[in-house]
Amino acid sequence: MSRSFTGCKRCKARRQKCDEQRPECGRCKAAGIQCKYAMQLQWGGRAFSRSRFGACVGNGGMQRLEYSPGEFVYTTTKSPSPTSSKVTLAREIDPFSSLPSEQRALLQHFIRDASRVTSCHPGMQRDICRMIVPMALQTPSLLYATTALSAIHLQALSNQSDRVKTAPDIARLMARSLEHFRIELQDPSLKGSDALLATARTLCLAEIHSGAIHPNTWRAHIEGAKALMSASDSSPDSPQKANESFRRYLNRWYRSIVSLTALNGNGPPIGDADAKALAIPSKSEGPDYLDDYWGFTVHLADIFRQIGAVAWRRHQSTAADGKLIKFDEEDFQEEASSLETSVRRLIDRDADSKPTFYPGVVEGLSADTIQQFMLCNEAFQHTALIHIHRRIRKAPAWAPEVQQSVKRILECTSQITPATGLSPWVMLTTPMFTAGCEALGKDREEFKKLLTSLHDTVRIPNVLQSLRFLELYWANDQTSEDEDWSHFLDRMSFDFIPY
Question: Is 17 left (phi over 0), alpha (psi -120 to 50) or beta?
Fold first, then answer.
C-alpha cells in the first residue's frame, strides 16, 4: 500500500497509509470509527496559507478589493517607507475593462452625464450610480438598458432629439436588452430579483425619454414592473434581492411613475383603478415626506392616483362620437370637491411650514435647493387642481380657477434656475405641460420658452415631444368645455406622458 494524498481524513491526520476503500477504509472499519473523505485544494503542492501567493496575502502585501457584491480581486498595497525615496503606486482596477469600447464609453457617459437628468441633487445621482452600475455589470439586460438610456441622452446632446426613435444603435441596444430580459425572466434563480425590476425601470425611462407615444412601449414596462414587484413580495427570502436601500429606491420610482401615469397618461390608471378604494391620507399616517426623487410629497402622489381614477371614469363617460353616456354628474362634482379640498389643505399647510424630507436627505441639500423643491412641489399641487377642474369638473380653460393655477405654475417654474441636471428643474415637464395646455394669450409663449429651455438644458427628447404636442394642441384651439387634452390625445391615437 503506497502513500496517497486522497486518503480519508483520519488516516491523513494520523499520517497512516489508507487503502482508500469507499465508503469506509479498512483502518476506520477495524477501529469502528466513521470514515470521512474531503478534497483539499492545494497550490503547487502546498496549502494556500503556505503557498507563495497565500504568503503575500498573509503578510499584508496583498489586499482584497471588492468592486461589486460577491465580486473581488486581489491587488497590491502601497507600503510607504520613510527611508526609501522609491514610490510604489498600486495599479487602479478598471471594472469596465472587460466591456467592449462602445459599452464602456456609454456606461461612463451614464455615470458622468446621463444620470444627472434623472437626479434632483448630487447625493441622489451618487446613490443611483452606486446601485445601478455594479448590478448592470452582472445583469446583461440591465447593462444594455442602461447604455440605451445613455445613448438617448448622448444623441440629444448632438441636437438629434428628433432622430432618437429611428437611431439604429439605440434600437439595437433596446432590442438586446429585451432579448436578455426575456431569458432572465425564465430563470427560476432570478425570481424576485431586484436586478430585473431595475431593468424594467430603466427600459421604461428609456422609452419615455425617447418620446414614445404608443402604449405598447413605456406602459408595458410599468405593468411588467408591477408584476415583478408582486413576484418579489411573494418570495421575501430570495437570495437575489439587493440591499434594502435599493429596494426602497425602486419602490419610490414605481410609486412616482404610477402616480404621474394616473394623472397624465391617456389610458387606464395602473394599479388600483377604483378611486373610492384610495383613501385620502390623514395626519396619523406619519410624515408627508417631500420625495427628493420625484419632487412632490407622498400624500400628493396618492391624490394624483385618485384624480386619475376619477378622471378616467369621467373620460369613459364620453363616447368616441362626442355624445355623453349616462352618468351621475352629482357624484363627479362631489368627488371633485373632496379632491380639491385635499389639495388645498396641502397648499395651506406647506405655505406655513418647511418641507419634511426623508431621513438623511436634507443634510446634503443647500437652502437654495430646498427652496426650489418647495416651488416644484407647489407647481405639482396646482397641476393637480388643473386636472380636477378640467378633467373632472369639465370647467373651460378660461375659467378663473383654472387660470389662477396656470399663472401660479408659471411663477413657480420661472423661479427655478435652469440646470443641466442635479436640480428639481429636471422634474418640471409635467407641470409645464399641464399648465401650457390651458394657457391663454401671452402665457402660451412663456411656457414655450420654459419648455425650450428645459429641453436645451436636460436634453431629454420627450421634453421636445411635449412642446410639439402643445403647439399642435394650441393650433386646434381646444378651449371648449367638452374636450380637454386627454380627448384630443384620443383623436390623435397617442398614449403620451410628459415626464
Answer: beta
DSSP assignment of 58-108, as one string?
Answer: HTTSEEEEEEETTEEEEEE-----TT----PPPPPP-TTTTS-HHHHHHHH
Instruction: Report the pLDDT value the prediction gives residue 9, as an integer from 0 to 100.
Output: 84
Q: Shortest CA distance to 387 belongs to which of 430, 449, 444?
A: 430
Question: What distance in Å separates the CA atoms of residue 194 and residue 135, rounded to the nearest whole number?
Answer: 9
d(CA 334, CA 308): 15
Return d(Cα 80, Cα 60) in angstroms, integer. Answer: 13
Residues 114 and 148: their CA atoms lie apart, in Å, by 11
C-alpha 498 chain-centroid distance:
16
Which amino acid belongs to residue 151?
A
Burial of 298 (0-12, 13-18, 19+ CB in 10 A): buried
Domains of the chain: 1-46 (4.10.240.10), 102-242 (no CATH)
- This prediction has a pTM of 0.78
For residues 379 and 413, the answer to whether their CB atoms sit within 8 Å is: yes
Q: What is the mean pLDDT of residues 204-230?
A: 83
